[in-house]
Amino acid sequence: MNIMRFSPKQHKETLLVALLGLLIMASLNVIMLQYHYDAWTNPKVGFWSAFYNRFELSGFDSFTYILISKWRPLYALFRHPLLAAMMWPFSELNGWLTSVFGINCAIFIVAALWTLLALASWLLMYRILRRLMEMTMAHSLLLTAWFFSFSHVMLVTFTPDHMSLSLPLLLLAVYLAGKAIKRNRAMPLWQSLPLLFVATGVTSTNMVKVGLADLFTQLGRKPLSHVVRHFMTYLVPLAVIAGLYFYQQETTQAEETRSNHELMVKKARRDSTFAKQWEADKAERRERRKKQIADVFFITNTEHNIDRMPSLVENVFGEGLLLHEDYTLMDANKTRPVLVRYNHWWYYALEAMAVLLFAVGAWCGRRERLMWMTMAMFLFDMALHVGLEFANADVYIMTAHWAFVMPVAVAYLLKRTDKTPALNMAVVCSLLFLTVFAWGHNLKLIVEHIIR
User: Fewer CB atoms inside 10 A, N or C side of the chain?
Assistant: First the structure.
């Protein structure tokens, strides 16, 4: 199959899949518009108080809402070097819309933008399965629906967090690299360098994911010296990002830091209780800093010392795929315990079924570059979040950064069992059950949380 040319039948199929994805993603974002609608469209306090103090969705942050309402460099530059700058045009758009309609339109701008981003992710996931792996339309749709049934993949389709931007960029990296692998070619620089620049600008660790995708198209096809020279060109976009980072650090970020400090000092002078709490918070941060596993400025929050196996069970493959009924969508940095157990044994059975399908599928695809490329991305995240325990308290919010490896793996399982109809049907029925249950379970809890 020539993956660059599509027949009219394929275009019709793509249109149908896109319309289905648009319906799903638009519906989810319309639901999100109900969340504190009056308080966010007609705030009676500052935007920080209006959004930050009311927003609680599993540990995701409301910075995007705040930035678009009134632009401020809130994101940590060393993790998201260009993200705040990317939001500036939408903040300007919101200013114009607010003057026209008389309400803060940030939530509407995010809903529209996030619908498009989620639709792009939906189509890329489908195309990876359909065009690259040559799955049937039914199997591709089922696996795509399964992927988006994962609780913390579903959430990023409408939650104003940077994961929503990372997901389509990472899927694009997988798709472009997979296409190059399928054509037995290396990924060209005109694809990898712009993708590296944008993806790294959103989240610094995306640099590794794009690099891994590129690497799997280079090894074995080019001499080692060529591969080294190829990756040396990465220094160009990274140098531009570094320059923009230092420029922002000395201008907008310095002004934001100064302004925040002055605000805190003034409040501490007026309120002795706040002053004591402020000092206590600073002392606590110093103590936490001493307990860091990796004490470097770009990797923080590694001090939780959470038992890794319970975290894998309850958070990585638990909360990341199926929401717990207790402490639903609460923030582990606020009121939610780090580890929460399911109320019934069958949740663990469903989790085990999903992990088993993933593991067996990875084994079936063990000789495929696409499998190892996505597995390398998954293992990088596991080393970071489980090994170093970076952000391990709410590791489930990172699910969209790696969970695409699961449908890719299970696709290889379906391909392997294709000549054994009974076994193939058992896998399909298992997937269908997991997908329907996860969509129903997660969506019910999410809607109840949003409209309560």
Answer: C
